[in-house]
Amino acid sequence: MRKIIILIFIIVLGLSAEAYADGSNIVQGKYRVVFAVDSSNSMNYNDKANMTGEVIKMFLDSCDSGKTEAAVVFYSDSILSNTGLNMISDKKEEYKKSVSDFAKRGSTDIGLALKTSVDLFGSINENDICSVILFSDGETDLSVSGTGRTLMDSKNDEVYAVNKSKESNIKIYTVCLNKNNKSDYLKNISEQTGGKTYSLKELSDVSGMFTDLAANVTRNKISEVSISSEGGNYKFTVGLPKGYARETDIIIQHLKPINNLNTDYGKENFESYSSNLYTILKLKNSDKDSINVSFSAENSNIKVSAVNYIKIFPRVDMPENTALLNLPIEVRLVDVDTGNTAGEELYENLKGEIEIIDDISGEVQRAALGNAGDYMTATIQNTNPKTYKFKAEVYNDIYRENSPYKEITLTNNPPEQKEDNKISVLKGSEMEIDLNDYFYDDDGDVLTYQFADKKYAENKNIDKNILKVFSEEEKTESVFLNVSDGRGGVISGDIILEYMPAWLYYKNTIIGVVLIFILLIALYLIYKYKTSENKEEPEEVPHKTGEIFTGARFEGYFLKTLSGNDIPVLNWNASYIDNRHNITLGEMFGILDVTEKLPEANKIFFEAGKNNTVVFYHDTDCIISFGNRNILRKKKEILNYDDRIYIVFEDNSTEIEIRYKRVRKNNKSYV
Fold first, then answer.
1. How far is CA 50 from the centre of its chain?
2. Is the C or the N end of the chain the one with fewer CB within 10 Å?
């Protein structure tokens, strides 16, 4: 079995009910269609198969039901019935029934039918797409009419209808149902309004005619879908513009009924309509990428087409400052049903370009759009500020849409001069002055400079933005310049040149150096004053090898303990530490069996000094005071007889006072 399934991605080229930009919004108009149905007696012969009714029903079933208004006017030599314009969603079944069983009688008055039809539109919104589709088998014939109307009356009504259609942008489409092909009269009416004429002779003509008519009326591309068949079994796949469309209609046209219609989509996800000549699947807000369809039929005259009613349109956003040289343009996708901007997922693989049309010359420029995640962007050169029309086209594999034209007047701000225009120049030396330091342009333009008069060019010249000056004289002069931004913005400004001798030119530099020198001297004097205040503080005394504790004694008084233990006065005399060069407080605690947990005592040191002194230092976070000052970590202090050290240990509770004593010999004994 040979199976061919061709995936067609539907690319909608036209606008769904033309969208336009209104400030920050995109507004989508409605389809407004009037079907003018010839119900004269001759139609009993020329339209026995009711091709008119089939075309109208197919249109009603395949239109964008949420955006379409329709009316049906039945006419002969008078208006037999007029429904008025109503939303299809409210009147579709009623309209379909009426075009299936309307009676045909009387003569033909096409002028009256056209005038009645165009008058139904009333006030027309510029965004609406308005169409009249007139069905007839020939021309106006009032020869046997009893209405009293004449051919001139009908012609006048026809002229009125054509003129009003041209003024209001109503297009008239005519469908000729005459086996003798009398369509020139109807063709003339259509062409005057930008419409088109179609001919229907047999049921087999409906298929091709309807696709073209619907595409013109809705201004959408109706794409033909490739199908595969074998033994009366048909299959096809339609790509869906996931997220971009509110509705996708698949139209199966057939001369005989089809059977066993199946899809992989689930019946709850679409609506199905059918008649003698067609079957329509209407998918709303599809979240799938494609749909597979199969059915069986007894004949091979099958045509499948699809149309997407797009709800996502690009919108051109301009920056507030339209005078910038490098003008950033942003394009966003907007849901016309909700007014919300689309999320990043709809920008995936999206490409596009911005089109800029000169409003006067019609010259067209284009710039590629880059994808920035949740918007697209391009930068254009605003080299010739005036009014332009901007339009964006964005597309990927399944979507292609144009934004409505947006008319923007690009502007330009002229250069400006800074307030400070005085320039000091060293006499007798050629100097270069950057004029951009004295003039600026907020639009990002490159400024050019010229002397306002040749007299200002003496001993001076301009190279781009650099002014070169020289003078042997000590003087002050004004130089007038014309400053241009290259886009029509020109100003005149002046700078004042003050030529001065070196001592005056460098005056500020000299004063600055002197002030720095004075500051350094002041800092030095402050430093010397501070060091002189602290010179009485003991300096660190280095340990001298060979010094030992001889006749030394320490007394320890625990003022407070963390444990609450009452510890008696401690005495460490020379008998314990004689012949030692140094000892820690922790070792002293060990000698006298002090059991308080004070590990930092092992980092509190006593060293033997010279001339019967003791060197004290520590490497702890204890608070240790000596006299009226604290002893810093690793700072050495010299202890003389009767000096006292106060220690608050790291537990912030235990306190001890240590006194340094000397053991004096008295009658050859220690006291």
1. 54
2. N
In the DSSP assignment, the letter for residue 3 is: -
Residues 102, 106, 109, 112: is their CA dihedral positive or negative?
A: negative
In the numeric block, which tokens belong to residue 218? Answer: 């809705």
Burial of 183 (0-12, 13-18, 19+ CB in 10 A): buried
Q: Who's near 130: CB < 8 A, 6+ residues apart?
A: 32, 33, 121, 124, 168, 169, 170, 171
Written as one letter, the residue type at 444 is G
22 band by pLDDT with thresholds 50, 70 and 90: very low
Are 603 and 619 in contact, with CB atoms under 8 Å apart?
yes
Higher-confidence residue: 495 or 667?
495
**Statement: residue 539 has pLDDT above 60:** no
Give dist(CA 368, CA 381) in Å, integer: 13
For 95, the token pair is: 């309209």
| Contacts within 8 Å (CB) and 24+ apart, 525-530 | none
CA pair distance 55, 51, nearest whole angstrom: 6
* CA–CA gap between residue 654 and residue 189 (Å, rounded): 114
Residue 96: name the closest of 283, 275, 217, 277 by CA: 275
* CB-based contact 547:609 (threshold 8 Å): yes
pLDDT tens by residue, 223-270: 899 999 888 899 999 988 888 988 899 999 998 889 999 999 887 888
292 alpha carbon, distance to own chain's centre: 36
pLDDT band for position 590 (50/70/90)? Answer: confident
d(CA 568, CA 591): 14
CA 73, CA 37: separation in Å to the nearest integer?
Answer: 6
- Beta-ladder partners of 274: 279
Query: 151-168 and 184-192 helices cross at what angle (nearest 10)?
Result: 30
Kind and range of the H or E run holding 353: strand 351-358
pTM: 0.64
Sign of CA dihedral 437, 443, 445, 447: negative
Higher-confidence residue of 661 and 23: namely 661
Structure tokens, 233: 């079994």
- Residue 545 carries which DSSP code? T
Per the rule left: phi > 0, alpha: psi between -120 and 50, beta: everything else, 579 is left
Query: Is 393 buried (19+), middle (13-18) or exposed (0-12) by CB count in 10 A?
Result: middle
Q: What is the signed CA dihedral for 71, 76, 77, 81, rounded to 10 degrees?
A: -40
Residues 482 and 435: beta-carbon distance below 8 Å? no
433 SS3 class: strand
Is the four-CA dihedral 629, 630, 636, 642 of positive or negative sign?
positive
Distance CA 478, CA 490 (A): 19
In percent, the amount of the chain with pLDDT more than 70 equals 91
